[in-house]
Amino acid sequence: MEGFYGDGNDKDYCIWCLKGGNVTQPLSKLERISLVCEFKIYCSANARRCKGGCVDIPVERSGESTYLTHDQVILLVTDLIHEVNRVKHMPLLDENDSIISEEDYPAWTGWSLTQLKDMCSLINPQMRTSKHRLPFEAVCMYWIKLKTNLSFRQIGTLFKIQTKEENIRRRVENIFHTVSRYLYDAIVPSNLGFHHLSRADALTHHTAYTETFFGPSLALIWDGTYIYCNKSEDHKFQKETYSGQKCRHLVKFMSIVLPDGYVFDLIGPFNGKENDAKISKAILEMNDDLSMICEAGDTQIVDRGFRDVADAFEELGFDVQMPSFLEKGAKQLETEQANETRMATKTRWVVESFHSQFKKWRFFSERISQDFLVNIDVLVRTVAASLNKYRPRLFHGKSPDDYALATKMLLMHNKTSQLQQLISQGDLSLRKNWKNIVHFDIHFDFPYLTLDFLREYTCGVYQIKQSSTYAKAHLYDHGGEFEYQLSSSDDNILRCRIHSKHSSTSKYFLLIHFDKNGTHEPIKDHYCQCKSGARQLGCCSHIATVLWYMGNARHITWIPSIRTDDYREKILKC
């Protein structure tokens, strides 16, 4: 056999490392076929391999030309036919011998092979093996449905279920609901809900930011999420699930998350027409379990949609942290309000991150059939509990750098903008006495800012991530030039006008006071006209864009991404 190696005399040494004298074990038929197909090495039925494993790839050989006898050819062809037939009826995912690689399991199920095996071990006492169902395959079918939202019929094809057309769908559906019940009973009670954690355990989930901002008391983060469903034939149910905000039919769940992203509980479903405040109030009224772990003085972190339930939280003795609202007639938050808002958003983003992680199981991000609404709470809580059990926390937030930044933010809580005061006193105008500069003059010496400095100045990374898209739009609007102005009375004060990404007609003036020679404090102050522009705990995205572009991007010859330009040009304009 040209191009193949191995003479079949291989019973006295390891076929992989070619060494003798080691403790060996016989190769399985599959291993022998793999050597032929992958490495072009022929070995007999007597071939052996080191018992403890030796090399990952067989040692190359060139002096063992393969000459097969008539009987050896027949045995090899028989083995190949047997292997083809075995693979033909083998399911996509198998506990011991899968068609896909181990790295593909998360893409299909959301979990690693080890995690799936652990889940299988949890339900093995209840789910017995039968000729139509193996526990491992059943667990994989369940998670493939949630991860990909393929139909039950399509999943049946992946697992080579041999029966009538309609029976394939029904069998997979029955397996799905059976596994759903068993996994819920095995995972949820010990990994989700008011009773699964003690107060002492919950306090260990603090981060540097919640502990520094709000003290050592327990902090819970509340936020609602939703799952779209089909329009019902039942008129009453149709009205109850219709959300006027989303203009779609949906059911809602309330997520209660600890500061590091650990899901304390996920409660629902609730009607789509209810808002977060009303749902939270209902939870407080019908559920006394919250008082079992929370005490007076604990912190409840919420968004603006909970404004109507804030009083109910405070009546129970809780401290409510919520982003501030604009006063009637105001266009901008006061500095103190903006700073407090930043402290709230700095700690509550983990609940949004959890929702993003949760919706990666496409079953929950797409519109679900009403047949699943009966058990939707079981499915939702099983995923949340599994994330708690098998995934690392979304945010550890306990490093020395985190504590240093949190302390810095707390100390800056009452800081105000000197530029804003100059404007309010009439000593500085946003519209008069500015020198317009389009091209970067070689004499314009704006300090170079490292990404580490920018991360510290903005108190995070979110604004920096937004900067490139803001800068691209600004360059697009000004013919590829970054337009800015300098004060006629002070060359260290820069003015720029940046658009709002939310409104096509809104543009905001911003000011930056910089020090050309300041190595420790190159940026002295900032102010922006936008809603949160008076903030001193970090800065808004408009300020961050100018700092990033002027102090960093232009020094590294940054070029805007053109990937989305093709999308925009493809859309027809009227």
UniProtKB/TrEMBL annotation:
A GO MF label: metal ion binding
Residue stretches making up the DDE Tnp4 domain: 223-385
One Pfam family it belongs to: DDE_Tnp_4
Keyword annotations from UniProtKB, A to Z: Metal-binding
Cofactor (UniProt): a divalent metal cation
InterPro entries found in the cross-reference section: HARBI1_dom (IPR027806)
Coiled coil segments of this chain: none
Record's protein name: DDE Tnp4 domain-containing protein
Annotated source species: Rotaria socialis
